[in-house]
Amino acid sequence: MAHKLKVIAEPGKQEIIMSRTFDAPRDLVFKATSDPNLIPKWWGPRYLTTTVAEMDVKAGGRWRFVQRDDKGNEFAFNGVYHEIAAPERVISTFEFENLPPEMGKGHVVLQKVTFEEVDGKTVYTEKSVYLSVEDRDGMIQSGMEGGATESMDRLEEVLATMK
Fold first, then answer.
1. 14 vs 96: CA distance, rounded Å
2. Would 81 be classed as within a structural domain?
3. Is 1 contained in some domain?
4. 18 lies in which domain range?
5. Which residues contact 28 (CB under 8 A, 6 or more apart)?
6. Which of 23-37, 74-88, 125-139 has the lowest mean pLDDT?
7. 111 located within any domain
8. pLDDT, tens only, 19-33
9. Cα 115 from chain centroid?
């Protein structure tokens, strides 16, 4: 059964909440999202190649992913892990390094991802809090929802190979 990504972005709020149910146990979903060898298989849209430049999954550890398109353009993302409570939750920051100039610079997002097991399935919920409503709206306008939907579809495919 295919599940759809639910995205909640209420007007005037600084947050985006995304949720999706996966047909896989929580331990497996947590592993797929915290294993640097699995990240390139699902993180981001299919037309980009993702490389894990750094991924130290512990409190205070850093992460950095670099994506490339077929023309050689690079898009980099990074953050710091603040809390890892395997397999229940991960709290970290997220920053898009190559943000287009019109979207400003230095927009750090605080993310809390929770993994809730329900009847053998896992409810993945990602709550992202932005510095301002404008930052949040800019992320929505950047096409984030389409990229997130494709990433979650790809994660479902990776989980199917892990069972």
1. 17
2. yes
3. no
4. 6-162
5. 122, 159, 162, 163
6. 125-139
7. yes
8. 999 999 999 999 999
9. 13
Check which CATH number belongs to the domain holding 102 and give it: 3.30.530.20
Tell me the two tokens of residue 98: 């190559």
Q: Is the pLDDT of residue 125 over 90?
A: yes
> In the chain, how many domains are there?
1
pLDDT in tens, 87-104: 999 999 999 887 666 555
Task: Please state the three-class secondary structure of 77-126 as a single string.
Answer: EEEEEEEEECCCEEEEEEEECCCCHHHCCCCEEEEEEEEEEECCEEEEEE
Specify if 92 maps to a domain. yes
- Look up the pTM and report it: 0.92
Across the chain, how many H-helices and E-strands are there?
4, 8
Q: Is the dihedral of CA 112, 127, 29, 76 positive or negative?
A: negative
Structure tokens at 67: 């994506």
pLDDT of residue 37: 98
Report the alpha-carbon distance of residue 114 to residue 30 in Å, rounded.
Answer: 9
Residue type, 98: N
* Rg from Cα positions in the chain: 15
